[in-house]
Specification:
The chain is of the alpha/beta class. It has 13 helices and 21 strands.
Length: 399
């Protein structure tokens, strides 16, 4: 099939990773087209996390899409751990020399990036059917798809696979060329989104005998709550009333007094897993974000890791076009994976620390409580949590 047109970078996937990469490449004068199999409304309808590390917020500012984020985002200088009915505050700002996190919903971030792309008149194809990536191991990759009943093709220099864990990009890599690492957890998170004021000004992680809970927010008037549930749980078993009652049981007296309930805007159950593939580069195909790794949401690292991948991919592509050097492309996978594995470790560790793990038995529960007792009463222990939560510096562990 003859190409319909040519671009420098073909980006598969119009989630935050693909849109942010497209925006940064545009700022650098590099042409890119974005292909997305879903409708625009479907992409905007995804309910996802919204805790941004400082490096992610700075990258969005650099991309020119930070105005609404800075206006509406909530700066958090700490969070609380509620352990067996007793609260402990992790002072992120004080323990890290001034670092904070920013609460800003991923849906809003995606909207900002879409609007910036629209304003610049940059090409994005939604509802692209049968997307396929070709010849990425050679010098002349291309992407094909079908849209409005017509088969189309774009030739390119590079393909960025930003299409998530079930996308075509990773699935197109030969099985022998890729290695997968995975841990599947024995529970999931039941999440509920409601237009109610948050139960606290800061995020609360709850470790109770009844199970883990998370009290978070998207804004001062929209709350997001999660409950640890068995993998066998069905959404139909959880009415709004049952959810709120169970959350009350896991909170302390202060939390119960401040909890405002309301009808769910969205409710879903998410299984938890840790997943990484190596490498992340295959010739002229770069895997970015969820296409290459998944983290448990406990550590709020998924979106932030995707943003770091985008940063490294952008740097590598700019170096390729501006300096005629492929050093950045060659180092892309190693640079990303050093940061990914550190975030995977933290997310796994924080999940282990905050969730009752029935499979580890009574001794596991006692050891968990002993570890929490040490960490929460040691400045060094609290600093370990804080430094990882706000995000390690980009230069940490550079290769």
């Amino acid at each position: 099939m003859a190409p319909d047109h040519r671009t420098q970078v073909a980006i598969v996937g119009a989630g935050p990773a693909g849109l942010l990469l497209g925006q940064l490449l545009h700022k650098a004068g590099i042409d890119a087209v974005i292909l997305e199999r879903h409708a625009r409304e479907h992409v905007l309808g995804r309910i996802r996390a919204g805790v941004l590390e400082q490096t992610t917020a700075d990258l969005l500012e650099h991309a020119g899409v930070g105005a609404r984020m800075r206006r509406d985002g909530l700066v958090h200088t700490g969070f609380e751990l509620l352990v067996q009915g007793r609260r402990h505050r992790i002072d992120l700002h004080g323990l890290t020399g001034g670092s904070t996190v920013l609460v800003y919903g991923q849906t809003e971030l995606t909207r900002d990036l879409m609007e910036a792309r629209d304003a610049a008149g940059l090409p994005t194809v939604y509802e692209a059917e049968h997307v396929a990536v070709h010849s990425f191991e050679g010098a002349h990759p291309y992407v094909t798809w079908r849209h409005s009943g017509r088969d189309q093709r774009v030739d390119c220099d590079f393909i960025a696979g930003c299409d998530g864990s079930h996308g075509v990009s990773r699935a197109s890599v030969a099985r022998g060329a890729i290695r997968e690492y995975e841990r599947v957890y024995s529970f999931g998170w039941l999440g509920l989104l409601a237009d109610t004021p948050p139960v606290s000004d800061e995020i609360i992680y709850v470790n109770s005998e009844r199970g883990f809970a998370l009290c978070s927010m998207r804004s001062r008037t929209r709350s997001r709550y999660y409950l640890q549930v068995p993998l066998t749980a069905a959404l139909s078993q959880w009415s709004d009333e049952r959810f709120w009652e169970e959350l009350r049981e896991r909170l302390d007296e202060r939390g119960r007094a401040r909890l405002v309930t309301g009808p769910a805007l969205e409710k879903s159950i998410t299984p938890l897993r840790s997943f990484v593939v190596e490498p992340l580069r295959f010739g002229r195909l770069l895997l970015v974000g969820d296409a290459g790794h998944i983290v448990p949401p406990t550590g709020a690292k998924g979106l932030n890791l995707a943003a770091t991948d985008v940063r490294y991919a952008t740097d590598a592509l700019i170096e390729h076009y501006a300096e005629r050097s492929d050093a950045g492309i060659d180092r892309y996978s190693a640079r990303c994976l050093r940061r990914i594995w550190r975030a995977e470790r933290f997310s796994w560790w924080l999940t282990r620390l905050t969730h009752p793990l029935a499979e580890e038995g009574p001794i596991g529960a006692k050891l968990q409580q002993a570890e929490l007792d040490y960490l929460l009463h040691s400045e060094a222990g609290r600093r370990t949590i804080a430094e990882n939560y706000v995000g390690l510096p980009l230069e940490f562990g550079e290769v």
